[in-house]
Amino acid sequence: MSKVLVIGAGGVGSVAVHKMAMNPDIFSDITLASRTKSKCDAIAESVKARTGVIIATDAIDADDVAATRALIKRVQPKLVVNLALPYQDLTIMEACLAAGADYMDTANYEPIDVAKFEYSWQWAYQDRFVEAGRMALLGSGFDPGVTSVFTTWLRKHHFDRIDTLDILDCNGGDHGQAFATNFNPEINIREVTAPARHWENGEWIETPAMSTKVAFDFEGVGPKNMYLMYHEELESLATHLPEIKRIRFWMTFGDEYIKHLTVLQNVGMTRIDPVIYNGVEIVPLQFLKAVLPEPASLGATTKGKTNIGVIATGLGKDGKEKTLYLYNICDHEDAYAETGNQAVSYTTGVPAMIGAAMMVTGTWAGAGVWNIEQLDPDPFMDMLMQHGLPWQLKELDGPVGF
Ligand code: NDP
């Protein structure tokens, strides 16, 4: 029985609070706060209609540490679940330390004015969380999140050593729009337009954005082109599992998405530096976000499935070299029927609920800043099975040849 404060009322926040409300034995008291309170109220109404549970709502600008500290002091949660944007990670961590609460998020901190993905800023809080006797769990979404849990579970139960790891993120959903992103467009486009980087033999190999394309046949979806990209869990996995010689991240994109993105990039619409328009400073990417469909609005029309997983090759516990593929398939329409949100929000919001459950029940405990692969994967894997993201394990003939 525990009190949680969730910050952020987008698609991910919506799924997480619906799933928390479906588990009242774990989450006895839920408050949802965000910049726009009406979005929290709409989610609270849906939660009440679907589960009968009443959640409290509040308005907060989480860029404001003092205001966030005051909110945490007032609500008195054991845990603050940050489902706002990566820009708010550090201010919410500060507020948690100041008010005395544990912290969890699904995406690593990024400064708003430079697309730079690294954990250094959040890892720098290690000593302060230890001294305060508080826990911070970083990256409890799907990727980062489940993909790292999948990796440690494979290492614990199937491998004596993992040599190579590929993370494959496929969204086979069709929302019927010419161009839209399935999560926050600004974050999505910053991620996709950044140079690709992967870890190989102790160093980062950088290649131009979207320049390495491979076709892969995804169960439940079919063949798709996937692109080599940088993704934040590469850094934490390379740090915490240094035996892995090569770690890569792949994401699928349709040709239409690539075509639109290329044009937007070429005309300067994905720039994150301010330009002056009619005497007013605007950031092109933020303006673009304002004219694109809200990810939360795509739920009703999205059909198809996601398939996200990891392929690991190494020395099996039976002494033989082997390749295992561990993945989850999630259906957009099923996700929407259950929570009113499509599968990209669902596959992030469910692991956010599970990470929060691990922390409030004390299943995962310890002062300091943790990445998810540092913790025991077993209870998390059990909850994935029970709460809507069942996983499947398959042996492949050999390492995938790409
Ligand atoms: P949305 O843009 O749909 O929602 C973000 C929410 O945060 C909105 O309600 C927004 O408010 C609110 N917000 C923004 N700034 C502030 C602020 N300063 N103070 C308070 N609230 C604020 O994003 P998603 O729900 O799609 O994503 C949420 C998070 O999940 C992001 O950090 C994203 O990177 C992460 N994510 C992680 C994934 C993973 O697998 N690990 C996958 C997908 C997403 P408003 O409505 O007023 O704008």
Name a few traits of the molecule.
single chain, 402 residues, alpha/beta, Dihydrodipicolinate Reductase, domain 2, 7-stranded parallel β-sheet, binds NADPH dihydro-nicotinamide-adenine-dinucleotide phosphate
The fraction of residues in strands falls at 25-35%
User: How does CATH name the architecture of the largest domain?
Assistant: 2-Layer Sandwich
Which residues form runs of ≥5 with pLDDT under 50? none
Intertermini distance? 47 Å
Treating each run of at least 4 consecutive H or I residues as one helix, how many helices?
A: 14
What is the CATH C-level name of the largest domain?
A: Alpha Beta
Shape: globular
Largest sheet: 9 strands, mixed
Query: How many strand units?
Result: 18
Hetero ligands: NADPH dihydro-nicotinamide-adenine-dinucleotide phosphate
Radius of gyration from CA coordinates: 20 Å
The CATH superfamily label of the largest domain reads Dihydrodipicolinate Reductase, domain 2
The overall number of domains is: 2
CATH topology of the largest domain: Dihydrodipicolinate Reductase, domain 2
Mean pLDDT: 95
